[in-house]
Amino acid sequence: MKRDFISIADYSRDWVEEIFKMTGDIKAKQKNGEVYHPLKNKNLVMIFQKPSARTRVSFEIGMWQLGGYALFLAPADIQLGKREATKDIARLFSRYNDGIMARLFAHKDMLDLAAHSHIPVINGLTDLLHPCQIMADLFTIKEHLGRITDFKIVFMGDGNNVAHSWLNMASNIPFHFVLSCPKGYEPDQTVLEAALAADVGKIEIVHDPFDAVKDADVIYTDVWASMGQEEEQKKRDKDFRNYQVNANLMSMAKPDCKFMHCLPAHRGSEVTDEVVDSENSIVFDEAENRLHVQKAIMVDLMG
Predict the structure, then answer these.
(1) d(Cα 150, Cα 142) in Å, to the nearest integer?
(2) Tens digit of pLDDT for each residue in 162-189?
(3) Quick one: pLDDT at residue 230?
(4) Are 45 and 160 in contact (CB under 8 A)?
(5) 201 CB contacts (<8 Å, ≥6 apart)?
(6) Which residues have C-beta within 8 Å of that of residue 261, sequence separation ≥ 6?
(7) Could you give all domains of the chain from N- to C-terminal order, each with its CATH number?
(8) Pick the catalytic residue: 132, 181, 257, 262?
(9) pTM score of the predicted model
(10) 250-263: per-residue pLDDT in tens?
(11) 3-state SS, residue 249
(12) Residue 262 annotated in active site
């Protein structure tokens, strides 16, 4: 039976820990210059409705480092669900390829791809979820804190796809997740209720940013207006102005509190230069680990 990686909620803590063990091994091999080609002669097709430098580079280089090949399809190359039915694309690509990675708008399109594909489908992002990012994030936290449990992370921003995948992770692993946002920007109710019902991690929505970051081990932020929300930029800039991660806000957390951002960062908006470039910032470790974690996921699903 083929397996997909659509949501962290589909997998157990044991699987996450096994992927992290594999990630550590793969990262060490890469740093030591070892040749490691478990996906030799295999290929991954990458469907992009939303552009992303990090997602394309990390998957494309990752497949090459694993001995395989990755094919990039831009929005103009394939109009999923418009020029051709999603289920037909899934069936056709299953005959050409060994795996599909897709970065899409609608989460339903991702589910349709997975339902009709005979090869593994990896969720590179949808408007609802961003699971590869949070796998890389938690692995990075493990590297810096030495653990994946018993820490407090505060996500400063709206209830977006990154926040939703953090909620999925908190359904499996016991840590304290706080979402700090203005009223009206809370996460999807179904995702939130599922995480609360799991009763694994401690989950809170805190509207006051300074209350939210007390005793935080990690403060995380994202852009205030995601791709597709550009028309809301001015309103969001106004609504989120008190949620900027700056030196003053960081000082309210633990002295060694780490700063994370999934990038690209809008410096001067959701975060200041002094925070991004500080010694407590681990944003580039986090970005690098997308490569290593995604390689482990591809080996697990396609190997």
Answers:
(1) 11
(2) 999 999 999 999 999 999 999 999 999 9
(3) 76
(4) no
(5) 169, 170, 171, 173, 174, 175, 176, 177, 195
(6) 220, 221, 222, 270, 271, 276, 283, 286
(7) 8-130+287-302 (3.40.50.1370), 134-282 (3.40.50.1370)
(8) 262
(9) 0.97
(10) 999 999 999 999 99
(11) helix
(12) yes
